[in-house]
């Protein structure tokens, strides 16, 4: 498994994830991307079939834009919710809300969607959440939020073999 986290701040939303693929207690790869930039929206996936989820969600995002224009957080969350239940995946989403402000949504494997200031999924999530909750500042800049996310993943990597140190990130600024 890997670990992905999301952090909101006054400056926007940062999503950070590592590149580890682990199963059966063994690291299978250290090069699998879990954080994706879909142009004006970003998402992170933790699942057995990360590529399948990312490809389907990216395809649905493109189709939505072709038919309806810009995509905000609520339709993105509905799309991700359907895929989460189908693929047994967890996702973090960053997109603008109805007012044009960056927003973060966490989508559980059962399709449930929550709006959080900080969120984490994956094998290192308990450690990462501890760091995120202790250090979260809603008035922080986007750079400070991204740094907190990297620090949370570094702490998780020290304590969880399923979390790596090579990171990808997505930022959505105000």
From TrEMBL:
Pfam families: Proteasome (PF00227). Keywords: Cytoplasm, Hydrolase, Protease, Proteasome. InterPro entries: Ntn_hydrolases_N, Proteasome_sua/b, Proteasome_suB-type. GO terms for molecular function: endopeptidase activity. The keyword Protease applies. GO terms for cellular component: cytoplasm; proteasome core complex. Coiled coil: none annotated. The keyword Protease applies. One of its GO terms (biological process) is proteolysis involved in protein catabolic process. This is 20S proteasome subunit A/B.
């Amino acid at each position: 498994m890997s670990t992905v986290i999301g952090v909101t701040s006054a400056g926007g939303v940062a999503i950070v994830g590592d590149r580890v693929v682990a199963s059966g207690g063994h690291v299978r790869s250290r090069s699998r991307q879990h954080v994706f930039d879909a142009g004006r929206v970003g998402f992170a996936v933790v699942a057995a079939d990360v590529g399948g989820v990312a490809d389907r969600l990216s395809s649905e995002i493109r189709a939505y834009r072709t038919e309806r224009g810009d995509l905000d957080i609520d339709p993105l969350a509905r799309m991700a919710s359907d895929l989460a239940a189908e693929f047994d995946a967890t996702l973090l989403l960053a997109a603008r809300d109805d007012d044009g402000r960056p927003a973060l949504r966490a989508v559980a494997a059962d399709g449930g969607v929550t709006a959080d200031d900080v969120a984490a999924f994956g094998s290192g999530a308990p450690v990462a959440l501890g760091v995120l909750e202790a250090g979260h500042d809603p008035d922080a800049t986007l750079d400070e939020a991204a740094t907190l996310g990297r620090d949370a993943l570094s702490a998780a990597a020290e304590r969880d073999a399923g979390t790596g140190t090579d990171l990808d990130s997505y930022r959505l600024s105000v």
